């Protein structure tokens, strides 16, 4: 998979790119080049400029200065097609998979006469990736696909239009370990057999190591590592180039034990006679296919009133009747669906940060002192924002995630429920978020943490409760198997 196997001139070369948004100088002479057959990690801390560079390369935004050269191997003289796969899928939910792929080929109205033709294009593209999957999903609506299947469809669509460059922006957030491995073997195959140039944006060091052969690092809008082989960079070098402290927090792990009668202890009862007694201050991880953890979480945060799960103890009897009731009972929630359920996009950062406090206090008006409170929370999380009066849309993805965590900091909470709270967050900031969550646990809150990043669960949690691939509770990860293999086995997701 080395670049040398293919001709030397890059598929894509961006040179001295400049970009400002108002007074914010985002890209400061950034360089980036991608060769055929290469899987290239584009790395950098939150707000370093990765997404902005991708938007410019794909033509979604215009650079203020600099040059972009694209060179196809095809002889028609056209530039290579670039396809982007985001973590939020770009599929039309009510159309079938075949129609979703075919739509990229529709030149005018999507006529019935062309349907058979586009269906066969779609089938061919999907079969190249996975013949069995193609048979199963071709004629079903896109909304019924899992996230991983949706990504495969997006990649098939890219292949069907002859894309030579594939950009993946944190594609593994929300994928299970098994799905991630499947995606990686597909990407390796596309690079090797089709010489597609792949750009992979991620904050997960283990995945970057497993997948990528080349690495570029942006720091504050400048290219500090330009297309270096991954083998030449140790993890610590990468973190240092990104400008982040290379500390590893010490792990102190205690297991959930004892009866449920300690003050503040809560009891969870669920399907298959499941019973969990959770002591205050416990960090409880949830692992496994999304359907299991998400059903439990929906009950905990008041999003589902009828549920096979029950929460009791310390004056609580849930299901709650509404999210508001859950907040008033002292349950905080950082949702995984940042855009849909988390960020209040039309309100400034200030309102986003103090939202939970306002709901708890039952007030809709601005309290004096909120501005100071917001500023100190923003500073505690080193949230990179122009002003607390800016809209959250002006923040980079990782900084929007910090905003959602900031909302619950320093509140007297009984329980904090977190769905992938470090999704899209850079390595240094992850450490900060881990420390903040530990702080909440030390203050006595029970932390319920759902993550698809098994390494993270194993590092942080006192106990991990696993669900099977169909969402059935499987039990706690046993002490002597408290490792990745044990977790993969218990969740039925051994790769
Ligand atoms: N439309 C915009 N208006 C104002 N500022 C913007 C806009 N888009 C991006 N920025 C700013 O540009 C900087 C770089 O953002 P960008 O999204 O490119 O970072 P990133 O490296 O992709 O970060 P992350 O890892 O958090 O996704 C950030 O400080 C962000 O606030």
Automatic annotation (TrEMBL):
<feature type="domain" description="ABC transporter">
    <location>
        <begin position="251"/>
        <end position="494"/>
    </location>
</feature>
<keyword id="KW-0762">Sugar transport</keyword>
<feature type="domain" description="ABC transporter">
    <location>
        <begin position="12"/>
        <end position="245"/>
    </location>
</feature>
<dbReference type="InterPro" id="IPR027417">
    <property type="entry name" value="P-loop_NTPase"/>
</dbReference>
<dbReference type="InterPro" id="IPR050107">
    <property type="entry name" value="ABC_carbohydrate_import_ATPase"/>
</dbReference>
<keyword id="KW-0547">Nucleotide-binding</keyword>
<keyword id="KW-0067">ATP-binding</keyword>
<keyword id="KW-0813">Transport</keyword>
<protein>
    <submittedName>
        <fullName>Ribose transport system ATP-binding protein</fullName>
    </submittedName>
</protein>
<dbReference type="InterPro" id="IPR003593">
    <property type="entry name" value="AAA+_ATPase"/>
</dbReference>
<dbReference type="GO" id="GO:0016887">
    <property type="term" value="F:ATP hydrolysis activity"/>
</dbReference>
<comment type="similarity">
    <text>Belongs to the ABC transporter superfamily.</text>
</comment>
<dbReference type="InterPro" id="IPR003439">
    <property type="entry name" value="ABC_transporter-like_ATP-bd"/>
</dbReference>
<dbReference type="Pfam" id="PF00005">
    <property type="entry name" value="ABC_tran"/>
</dbReference>
<dbReference type="InterPro" id="IPR017871">
    <property type="entry name" value="ABC_transporter-like_CS"/>
</dbReference>
<dbReference type="GO" id="GO:0005524">
    <property type="term" value="F:ATP binding"/>
</dbReference>
<keyword id="KW-0677">Repeat</keyword>
